[in-house]
Amino acid sequence: MLTICPDCDLAQEVDELQSGQQAQCVRCKAELAASFGDQLDIALAILLTSAILLLLMNVFPLLEMRVQGVSRQTTILGAAYQLYLQDMAPLALLVAFTTVIGPLVEIILLGMILLPVKVARFERASTGLVNLVQNIRPWSMVEVFMLGVLVSLVKLAALAEIITGPALWACAGLIVTMSFLKAMIRPEDLWVWSRKDQP
Fold first, then answer.
1. Cα–Cα distance between 194 and 2 in angstroms, integer?
2. Which residues of 133-168 are buried (b: 16+ CB within 10 A; e: fewer)?
3. Given this model, what pLDDT does residue 188 score?
4. Which of 82, 80, 83, 63 lies closest to 72 in space, CA to CA?
5. Low-confidence ranges of the chain (pLDDT < 70)
């Protein structure tokens, strides 16, 4: 398969790799491709895990705050809605887009690309979908939201009793799984997988 080196732009042929093998550029020794055995199956498993964690993150409470016997809890979308009610619509939209919509769209798009590659014999993945994944990834910022929540928890701990909800732990898990997905599912991998005949 003709491959262009991401570092020096040298075009070169790369043979199909066996499990555990890696191809390097003949000029600059940059990694061109790697075979991790059942990488596609692992990516699909992590993708499904990410979808479940995203669902849990948006269904269950993020945290509960108790002050003088009064208890209040909220979800991520509930927090965004409260920002909207306080005349901070742009911030509410940003929170909703970067923590809910962005990751959801990325997971759906990756599923639309990987599932047909796994169950069918498509010649190649859709160029538009691959490009859309690359464009939406910078807007998926669950880790930034998590950092903001942790800073808020530290500041609020002196004022009230804070109880972390299941959504906070789901959010932490989602950060890990999304990081794995970004490391495993590179654009060049999508093209390689889409050109292979699946059994």
1. 15
2. beebbeebbbbebbeebeeeeeeeeeeeeeeebebb
3. 66
4. 63
5. 1-2, 16-21, 32-38, 120-127, 187-199
C-alpha of 161 from chain center? 32
Q: What tokens does 98 get?
A: 């970067």
CA atoms within 13 A on the CB side of 88: 11
**Residue 115 CA from chain centroid, whole number:** 16
pTM of the full predicted structure? 0.73
CB 44 within 8 A of CB 29: no
- The β-bridge partners of 169 are none
At which residue do the structure tokens 């004022």 appear? 159
**Rounded to an integer, what is the distance from CA 134 to the centroid of its chain?**
11
> Is the Cβ–Cβ distance between 22 and 31 less than 8 Å?
yes
Q: Judge whether 39 and 192 are in contact, CB under 8 Å.
A: no
d(CA 136, CA 138): 6
